[in-house]
Each structure stands twice: as structure tokens, then as C-alpha cells.
Sequence to fold (195 residues):
Amino acid sequence: MKSHVFPVSVKGVAFRGGKVLLLQNERDEWELPGGKLELGEDPAACVVREISEESGWQVTAGPLLDCWQYHIAPGQDVLIVTYGCYVHSTGAPIVSHEHQRAGLFLPGQVPALTMPDGYKRSITAWLIHPVRTTSPTSAGRAGRVRENRGAHVFPGTSRRKITGWIRVTGWIWCTIGPQIRPITRNNHIDLQVSE
Fold:
């Protein structure tokens, strides 16, 4: 079995007023705000930091939504991990130097946008997630951890033979096989690798 090495990028789905925050990159694609993990950084803390840096918005990370491989160009592949986020900011997003512009889109506008299908899938997952409407102050950290302890199975994954585990806890490069499945335990993300 051939293995590949990918950087890990943590993204957040942030809705406010029924609209999702998206940022336009240098490839003229819309994407979720977020970025690469720093050394020793918790993935949920990464998405909170990145959304603040890229949009000026303050958020609280909610549940893990999805994990998928994004093939940008030959030799450019990234492992994307997405979280649902609770927005605390009321102002307009402020675009950082990393993006061309920011936009707030209704769910019905998202399918027509130029953006990877994985981001669209993550937006849909947060829209239908049962804890999306729970206040982050009432759910609290314990509620999020409890929510994240179960195994999550995502579309396109399987329950075939397990060949290894990867723990995502900081700035890392992951080696994965053809199938991945994120499972959260003790507020870390484990990726189950299957053949």
C-alpha cells in the first residue's frame, strides 16, 4: 500500500444571521476560514485563532464535522479537518492579507459557488447538526467534549480493516492510506486508516 504525506488544515463553519462566512482565496475559490496547526496547538484552538486572524470574528469551536483530503494541484494535497463554530461577533468580517474578500452566504447560495465539495459538505453537516442551535455558554466545554467522545462516520468512509491510527494534536504531517475516518477521544482527533 502506497502512503502519502499531507499538511493538516483546520477550518470552521461559522453561521451568523442564517449566513455562512466564506473567504475568497488567490485561486478565486471560496473557502471556509481556518489554517494550519501550529506546533503543540489543539485543533479546536487552531480554528478559533485562525478565524479571528482571517476575519476578525470571535468564535467558540463546537463539534468536529468532517475530515477529508483536498487535492489542490499536482503535489499539493491537504488534509482538511472542519469544526462547527459558534459566532460571538456582531460586526462585519474584516478581510486579512491572506484572502481577496469575505462573503456571507445563505445556504441556498452555496451549491453554485466555486469551492471544493468537502467545504459544501461541512456547511451542510453544521446546518443539520443537532447541537448547532445550542448556546455555547449553556453547552460549555464539558458539553462539547461529551459530544466529541463518540465515533463519527462520514460519507465515503467504510468500516474495513483498521491498518493504523494517527493523532492530530499540533503542527504535523499525516501519513494516511486510501480511507480515513476521524474519531475524537479526550478532545483530540484520531484518524482511523483503513485499506
About this structure: The first strand starts at residue 4 and ends at 16. The helical segments are 43-55, 117-128, 136-148. Confidence is low (pLDDT under 50) at residues 138-195. Residues 12 and 61 are 8 Å apart (CA to CA).
